[in-house]
Write a structure and sequence with these properties.
4-stranded mixed β-sheet; alpha+beta; 3 helices; globular; 28% helix; 2 domains; 151 residues
């Protein structure tokens, strides 16, 4: 079970507002690092998305403390890190939000199900799944896991 994940973006508060709207979440500050926010999705798993300023990197503490934050000025803003997130929003609503922000968003097949690639600030991709896409995703992954574990 994944309970939260973190991404770095250019405008943390603005992106927090957009994601909270799309995912029916609640925003709070994330105090360990300046200009950082968390979007709480309000489910029984404590699911959340942490937003850090672009270039934020987590590095291990030199001793036995918690991770430290540094800014990498050469960071491109792109990342392989992404997540698939279910939302109650329709495909049209998601695409309308992206269009209004001039952010890339398009529905694409993923082998047995589809997702909407939603490109935050045209740099960070998350896969948004409408209710129907979520059903298809769960069917496809259940089928895969059944076949995989029976080998």
């Amino acid at each position: 079970m994944i309970h939260h994940y973190s991404i770095s973006v250019g405008n943390t508060k603005y992106v927090a507002d957009v994601l909270a709207n799309l995912l029916n979440g609640t925003i709070t500050k994330f105090n360990p690092h300046n200009d950082s926010y968390i979007i709480w999705l309000g489910n029984e798993y404590g699911t959340a998305i942490e937003l850090f300023p672009n270039g934020t990197e987590m590095i291990p503490d030199a001793k036995n403390g918690q991770a430290n934050f540094v800014i990498n000025a050469q960071h491109s803003g792109f990342s392989a890190t992404h997540a698939a997130i279910s939302t109650k929003r329709s495909k049209e609503e998601i695409l309308d939000v992206a269009k209004g922000l001039a952010w890339r968003a398009l529905e694409l097949p993923r082998g047995g199900f589809s997702v909407i690639e939603f490109w935050i600030e045209n740099k960070v991709m998350i896969e948004l799944l409408t209710p129907n896409m979520t059903k298809d995703y769960l069917l496809a992954t259940k089928k895969f896991m059944t076949e995989y574990t029976n080998k």
